[in-house]
Amino acid sequence: SRIALKKYVKANNKISASDSMFDSLFNRALKSGVEKGVFAQPKGTCLPPLLECHA
User: Fold this and answer.
1) Cα–Cα distance for residue pair 41/35, rounded to 1 Å
2) Percent of the chain at pLDDT exceeding 70
3) Which superkingdom does the taxonomy of this entry point to (predicted)?
C-alpha cells in the first residue's frame, strides 16, 4: 500500500525534506514508476500501487 511504501522509504533513507515536500516527491516518483512499468497500478482511484516483479 502507499502508506506502507512511505513508511519503508522514511525508515530506510535519510530524508531532509519537509513532510509536504516528501509527499509531493513520493507521489511524483510513484507516478513515474507506474509509467516506466516498475509498479503496476490497478484500475480505480483508491486502489494501492503494486510492486511488479521483473524476472
Assistant:
1) 10
2) 78
3) Eukaryota
Q: Which residues does 34 contact at the CB level (< 8 Å), separation at least 6?
A: 40, 41, 49
Structure-block grid coordinates of residue 29: 516518483
Tell whether pTM > 0.85: no
* Helix, strand, coil percentages in the chain from 3-state DSSP, rounded to 5: 55, 5, 40
**Which amino acid, 6?**
K
HSE, CB side, 13 Å, CA atoms: give it for residue 26: 19
Q: Show the beta-strand stretches assigned E in 1-55.
A: 39-40, 50-51
Query: How far does the chain reach from its first CA to its final CA, in angstroms?
Result: 22
